[in-house]
Write a structure and sequence with these properties.
single chain; mainly alpha; disordered N terminus
């Protein structure tokens, strides 16, 4: 016999009428909030200091010429992020752990090396972005970067990273000003539409260089490691996959829409002036909406975006190495419980902040790191594609025939762009281009 406390039927009033049905909608919303996060955070971390610099430079240098290319990159990001979170949800393992299990020791070392190489430059760029943002406010970078590094490190090790993650996302909302600036900047909508729909590819080294940088900042290798590991760290299961997929796809589309508005807004404001030279120049695109406060608004968004990525990027490398080594890795662990995971995170923070304090050209550094990301992306994507194709790993959730073909085309296209850039660079070194 079941007691009244155990029954799941609606309450019955004294007059015999039934009470209100349980509100399943609220339960569903609660579930969405609990699961959503890794995909959205990973994708939007791409709109960091280096991402903003790259997108803004695309608008200032080629006006609307990269828009169609960005549409293709958006499709690629959606597919890649979906595959990453699917691996995490159905296997309960991160990308690093799966690579260790499914590939040889040498190939595992290659994957980890590529990620660490790319991430090291990226962590430097995040702290350089924080420094550049405060310099717009008249504060020297040497007075900001060390305490910023200490704060990020303490939040992950001793505080609540999840709480900090949401604070940084809220600060990054300042970049919502770009869609407004895009409209108020009165771009040539006919040109925008045609460049979105009609392919426009140039063979110049400058265009290929920027195209690879756009791939690198949008489909960054660390995003796949972080997205899969984040799903696992939150304890998601196969039955949660629909929500996880929605988080990954919507996060990718949202991030790329913001990217497109940055390109268009910058093109309308300073298009055709050539590559960016400073963060202040990038902020000019926000003048239609912020006027003299453009630099302040840009600085606020840049601080939030750089701080978010400044935590996400080193965490992705720590996840990957911890998974590959088969040791404890979680932001909820203490240092003594996960020394490799948190030690590597600490080392990346220290190195990134130290190099960012040196006298470097911030814009060139930011775009350069994205080019490096673009060159390394094909390597990581091959691992991701092979793993999601294997039924021995995902069973019935493995890529179907059509998805497999589409994903292969994406990987080959990214690899082709990277190869072209490498060939052009080598030819220019020997004076043949």
């Amino acid at each position: 016999m079941t007691s009244d406390a155990d029954t799941t039927t609606p309450d019955v009033a004294p007059d015999g009428t039934r009470g209100p049905e349980p509100r399943k909608g609220w339960r569903r919303i609660t579930t969405v909030v609990a699961i959503a996060g890794p995909g959205l955070v990973a994708a939007n971390a791409g709109n960091d200091a280096a991402g903003i610099a790259t997108y803004a430079s695309a608008g200032s240098q080629f006006i609307y010429g990269t828009l169609f290319f960005m549409v293709l990159v958006t499709i690629a990001l959606v597919m890649v992020q979906e595959m990453a979170v699917r691996l995490g949800a159905y296997t309960g393992k991160g990308l690093g752990a799966l690579i260790r299990e499914q590939f040889s020791l040498r190939l595992t070392a290659l994957a980890v090396f590529c990620l660490l190489l790319a991430n090291t430059g990226l962590v430097v760029s995040e702290f350089a972005g924080i420094g550049a943002a405060f310099e717009l406010l008249g504060v020297p970078k040497w007075a900001v970067i060390p305490p910023a590094a200490l704060l990020l490190w303490a939040l992950v090790l001793f505080g609540s990273y999840r709480w900090a993650e949401r604070i940084f996302l809220i600060m990054s909302l300042a970049f919502f000003a770009y869609p407004v600036a895009m409209v108020l900047g009165h771009p040539d909508w006919g040109q925008v539409g045609s460049h979105l729909a009609i392919p426009h590819i140039e063979g110049s080294q400058a265009f290929i260089l920027l195209a690879v940088a756009l791939i690198g900042t949008t489909v960054s290798p660390y995003m796949q490691f972080y997205a899969a590991a984040g799903v696992v760290d939150r304890g998601a299961k196969p039955e949660d996959y629909k929500l996880i997929r929605a988080d990954a796809v919507l996060g990718a589309v949202f991030a790329c829409l913001i990217s497109l508005t940055i390109i268009i807004a910058t093109a309308a404001a300073i298009g055709g002036t050539g590559p960016l030279q400073s963060a202040a120049q990038a902020a000019q695109a926000l003048e239609p909406v912020a006027g003299q406060g453009a630099e302040l608004l840009f600085a606020f968004g840049l601080i939030g975006a750089s701080a978010l990525a400044g935590a996400v990027v080193p965490l992705s490398a720590s996840y990957a190495v911890g998974e590959a080594a088969g040791v404890e890795r979680s932001v909820s662990r203490r240092f003594r419980d996960a020394p490799l995971f948190l030690g590597l995170f600490t080392a990346q923070i220290i190195l990134g902040a130290a190099v960012a304090l040196t006298p470097v050209n911030v814009i060139q550094l930011l775009i350069g790191t994205q080019v490096l990301q673009g060159l390394i992306s094909p390597v990581v994507l091959v691992y991701l594609l092979v793993l999601t194709n294997r039924r021995s790993v995902l069973g019935a959730a493995a890529n179907g025939p059509r998805y497999r073909i589409a994903a292969t085309v994406v990987v080959l296209a990214v690899a082709a762009m990277s190869t072209i850039l490498l060939v052009q660079t080598i030819l220019s070194w020997i004076g043949w281009a």
